[in-house]
Write a structure and sequence with these properties.
The chain has about 375 residues and is an alpha/beta fold. It contains 12 helices and 8 strands. The strands form 3 sheets. Strands 5-4-6-7 form a 4-stranded mixed beta sheet. Helix 2 packs parallel to helix 8.
Length: about 375
């Protein structure tokens, strides 16, 4: 993780053959992939692919972790919920969930595009919290990742060949930065068109997939719903980086509930990637959405509890804020420890952002940008 947020936002997947979610990815420990990189460290920034291990919504609860237990937000094997109440019902429910996720992804992408569509050239070159990346790099990265996801959804064999080619490169870990750097050099109007075209094509491809099909991905496979959720999460986080660079604070929306859910489900992964044994006991996580709604996960009677605002929780699990600069409260030693290591993206642990001198309010110091505002 670089100092400041790692620019590579990922989801995690824990497979039996990949206990901590990274071992099966050939470039995860490749030369050039260093921890704690960033300005003044003499190291490269982290090069973990933001896309190589998604699959959280379903796979984390049903795949194994290091000791053979099944991973889930409660640290135990959750019961399978049968959703088929009649012939064709399972497919209908699945497609309904996917449709909702894609609608949320479209809205999130449109909001991020509005942040940059009218920017002057100098603003595209503004540095973002990700070391070495400008606003243009952030948008180019989103466009590049959407294109990789589109390839996985439309030509699995071509995607596998491309993955093998990346892994064979001497500097395999640089491929994420290379994609962003290439796109950032494009004229800004062309870059925006590329991102818009790619994400719309991806959403169309996901809609057209046969229910139940799994897409190949970097080190694992994933469902269409998982891909949509992954893209939503990453778009929000990189959009947050862009807004921070421009001195804006976006109005939070109910779309954050998907990111909260991912962060909760990634609990065991955060422990494992730090070389720690995940707790066996369940946690209770209660976050307050932007409209005052409660998003709760885990049993009400749990002794280990986390409470606070959804915005701060999402920023924390994507490492866009330091723990000390949030309103999150922990009850119990394990809950407190989890907040110090939480991450909902793959790769080795990192330092995240440094603490500010004081608590940063959610709507300050930049101008409030409400949803739909250009």
């Amino acid at each position: 993780m670089v100092r400041g947020p790692c620019r590579e936002l990922c989801l995690v997947s824990t497979r039996r053959s990949s206990p901590v979610g990274v071992a099966r990815v050939p470039w995860a420990s490749a030369r050039g992939a260093t921890r704690g990189g960033g300005p003044g460290t003499g190291k490269k920034s982290c090069k973990r692919a933001c896309l190589f291990l998604p699959g959280l919504p379903l796979s984390v609860r049903r795949t194994a972790v290091r000791d053979g237990r099944r991973a889930g937000p409660a640290g135990r094997a959750p019961a399978r919920r049968r959703r088929d109440t009649g012939e064709g019902r399972t497919v209908a429910v699945s497609q309904g969930v996917l449709g909702e996720l894609l609608a949320e992804l479209r809205a999130e992408s449109a909001e991020v595009e509005r942040l940059v569509v009218a920017l002057p050239p100098a603003a595209w070159a503004a540095p973002t919290p990700a070391a070495g990346w400008t606003v243009a790099h952030q948008i180019a990265h989103l466009a590049w990742t959407d294109e990789r996801a589109l390839l996985a959804a439309t030509d699995a064999e071509a995607f596998r060949r491309e993955t093998e080619a990346y892994a064979a490169r001497p500097e395999a870990a640089d491929f994420v930065d290379d994609g962003a750097e290439s796109g950032a050099r494009l004229p800004h109007g062309e870059l925006l068109k590329r991102w818009r075209t790619g994400r719309e094509a991806l959403q169309g491809a996901l809609t057209g997939l046969t229910p139940g099909v799994r897409l190949p991905w970097y080190g694992t496979s994933m469902s269409a719903a998982s891909m949509a959720t992954a893209r939503l999460m990453e778009t929000w986080a990189h959009g947050t980086d862009v807004a921070d660079a421009l001195g804006l604070v976006r109005e939070p929306t109910a779309r954050l509930r998907h990111i909260v859910r991912l962060g909760v489900r990634a609990r065991d992964f955060a422990y494992l990637v730090h070389g720690l044994e995940p707790p066996a006991e369940a946690f209770r996580v209660e976050t307050t959405g932007p409209g005052g709604e409660l998003w709760a996960h885990g049993p009400e009677e749990a002794a280990q509890r986390v409470t606070g605002g959804a915005v701060d929780f999402c920023r924390l699990v994507t490492q866009r804020v330091h723990r000390d600069d949030t309103d999150l409260r922990a009850e119990g030693a394990e809950a407190e420890r989890w907040l110090s290591i939480a991450q909902a993206f793959a790769g080795p642990p990192g330092t995240g952002r440094a603490p500010s001198r004081g608590r940063q309010p959610e709507v300050s110091p930049g101008r409030m940008l409400r949803e739909g505002e250009a």
